[in-house]
Amino acid sequence: MLWRWPTTPIGEGNTGVQSSPRFFCGIDWADQLNDVAVVDRRGEVLARARISATPDGVRQLFRVLDGLRASHTHGRRQVPVAIETNQGLLVHALRARGQPVFQIPPSEVAGQRRRTSRAAKKSDSSDAELLAVMLRDRWGLLRELPAVSPDAAALTVLALAQYRAQRLREQLQARLRALLVQVHPVAARAWDGRDHGLRRAEARAVLAAGPTAAAAQRISVYRWEKILTGARLRLLEHEAYRLHELFAAPVLQLPAAIEAATAVEVRTLLAAFDDACRRADELTATLTGAFEAHPHAVTYLSFPGCGLLTGARLLAELGDDAHRFATAKGLRAYAGLAPLTWASGTVRQVTHRRICNRRLKMACHRWAFSALTHSLGARAFYDRRRAAGDSYAGALRRLAGRLLSGLHHCLAAGTVYDERIMFAPGRAAS
Fold first, then answer.
1. Shared-domain flag, residues 70 and 107
2. Domain contains 12
């Protein structure tokens, strides 16, 4: 992601990197040893080292950076560091000690390697040098990693873990449904039209008791009611009769040996799915609890359609660095909500951005969709965009951009959402 470099120095106090540093450092990240290369403004390599992600390795790197220039005005914090990742022990150690760190994606490094190297070769030391040179060439366009607080960084870790757990749960649910369609189709459709479908606790309890059609037919109404007791809170008898009638209908069945083997397969997959549901629920509770304890949660929750989980995901992707996004336009571009214009000669095309933070874009899409039923102003804005010719996705994207711009203003000003200001008549066409 390219950024305009601010005119003020980075860092804290007078320790930040000035607008034209003398030296540039590149670190090729690896599992065990990390290659380091330092170049000057002309691109000449001044120092090389190989460090480990340990306290001794960090001290070795700092000795290299401090020894670049014998002057009391030179310090290691005046040397920016380029690395391919924004996570890991080494990155956190450097940032905790005030070292300016810039991330350059591995895909860009690979593309630059292909353009600058005639031979198709790669080495860790040459990649470290390439990172330092790319940082020198792109100085003024790259931006330092945001200075988020430890609480916001922890929230980002929890949000990513919760997102992965949710994806795993969805994948296992799809696999379970596909298997049931083949061997137990009545159970696959038993909860269609109800919230969460097979993810419901009662659905998992029913499948555990009757994984095949023959096993489900043998269960009485009384036993169905007992099975539902721990998974359902109301209308137990009514649901027990519904399940009994549903599974009692004649269906095609497998041979006894194959059905016994199928029951084992269904129960094995169901156990993994049940565990994934519990893990995802636990991570969701932990994530929302950490979000509620953050000072910015009040601002996020004041917006219509922004619940605990949506607000937690937004905060996890945006962080709490007040100076990360200078304008709301830059924030919308980062989220993929600002239009992208392609103009060449007489051809001009306006489309939406595809290169963006996809998790943030997905959270904003759900936020805007939920705001339609929670805010009259949001609904009126969406209807105006649809009447103007926007598609469903385009109108929703514009609404998400408006909400994100309002969030940027509220966080910068330290205020909360106000419907009268957000969707004022004078702002309808802006």
1. yes
2. no
Q: For residue 129, what is the domain's CATH number?
A: 3.30.420.10
What tokens does 143 get? 């931006």
Where do the DSSP E strands lie in 3-151?
23-28, 33-40, 45-52, 81-83, 101-103
Domain enclosing residue 382, as ranges: 298-427
Integer Cα distance of 253 and 168 in angstroms:
30
**What are the DSSP calls for 23-52, one per residue?**
EEEEEE--SSEEEEEEEETT--EEEEEEEE
Q: Are 54 and 90 in contact (CB under 8 A)?
A: no
Q: Domain total for the chain? A: 3
Per-residue model confidence (pLDDT) at position 40? 92
Q: pLDDT digits over 318-337, tens only?
A: 998 888 888 999 999 999 98
Torsion of CA 34, 35, 41, 42, to 10 degrees: -160
The overall longest dimension of the chain from CA atoms, in Å, is: 89
Note whether residue 2 is domain-resident. no
- In 3-state terms, what secondary structure has residue 340? strand
pTM score above 0.70 = yes
pLDDT tier for residue 283 given thresholds of 50, 70 and 90: very high
Question: Do 197 and 173 meet the contact criterion of CB atoms below 8 Å apart?
Answer: yes
| pLDDT at residue 13 is higher than 60 | no
Q: Which pLDDT belongs to residue 26? A: 94
Helix or strand run (H / E) with residue 343:
strand 339-344
